[in-house]
Amino acid sequence: MADILVIEDHMELAGLIRDFLQVEGYSVQTAASGEEGLKYLANHTVKLLLLDIMLPELDGFAVCRRVREQHNLPILIMSARHGDENKIIGLELGADDYLEKPFSANLLTAKVKAHLRRSYDMNDDKQLLADGDIVINRASLQVFKKDQTLAMTSKEYELLVLLINNKGKALRKEWLFERVWGADSFSEPSTLTVHINKLRDKIEDNPKEPKRIVTIWGVGYKYEAV
C-alpha cells in the first residue's frame, strides 16, 4: 500500500516528486495517466493524491471528479495553469488544495504533511456525531443525510465537523480558515467561501435559503440546529 499516489504524465517530474517524498519517509506510487491512476485507486488504499491537471485523454479535473465520488482522501492539484479560475474549478470538483508549478520541494512536503496530519487528526475520534438528519461517522469519515451518503472532500468534512461541534456559535471567517487550512496555509481566504457553498449544496434542503449554515454578516458563519 502506498501512502501517496502521484498522477503526473511528465515522468521526470513524477520521479522527482517520488524521491522528495520518499526522503520524508512516505511510500509513493506514480501513474502516468488518469486511467492508470484510477485503476490503481480501485485496487489499493491511498492516503493522499497528488494530481496533475494537464494529462493525456482524461484530464485532471475529470479524474478529480471521479476520485471524489468514491474516496474521501486529500486531493492536491498540481498545475502550470495559474489564476483563480482554475483554482476554483479544482476546489469545486473536490480538490483540497492547489499547487502552482513550478513549486519547491519544501512547499510540496509541507503541504503533504499538513494535509495528512489533519486527516489523521480527524480519524482519531471514533464517535458518531449527529444533528437531526445529518450523521457523521468519524471512524469511516462518512457523512449521511437521511441515510444517504454525501460525497465530501476532506476539507468539507473538517469544516462540517468544526461547525457542528460549535453549534449555535458565531464563528469568525479567519478562525475557521486557520483551524481548517492552518495559519501557514498558502490557500486563498476565498477558499472558505467556496467550501461553505459546497457544504450548503450538500446538506441544506434549499441551499439558496440556508437554515443550517447561516451567514453572520461582518463576522462569519454559524451552524444552527434544524
Overview of the molecule:
This protein has a five-stranded parallel sheet, with helices on both faces. The chain has a four-stranded antiparallel sheet with strand order 6-7-8-9, with helices on one face. Strands 10-12-11 form a three-stranded antiparallel sheet. Helix content is 43%, strand content 21%. It has eight helices and twelve strands. With 226 residues, it is of the alpha/beta class. The chain folds into two domains: 4-121, Rossmann fold (3-Layer(aba) Sandwich), CATH 3.40.50; 126-223, Arc Repressor Mutant, subunit A, CATH 1.10.10. The protein starts with a strand and ends with a strand. It is globular.
The total tally of domains equals 2
- Our estimate of the beta-strand percent is 15-25%
Number of helices: 8
CATH class of the largest domain: Alpha Beta
CATH superfamily of the largest domain: Response regulator
The CA-CA distance between the termini, in Å, is 42 Å
**What would the principal axes of the Cα set say about the shape?**
globular
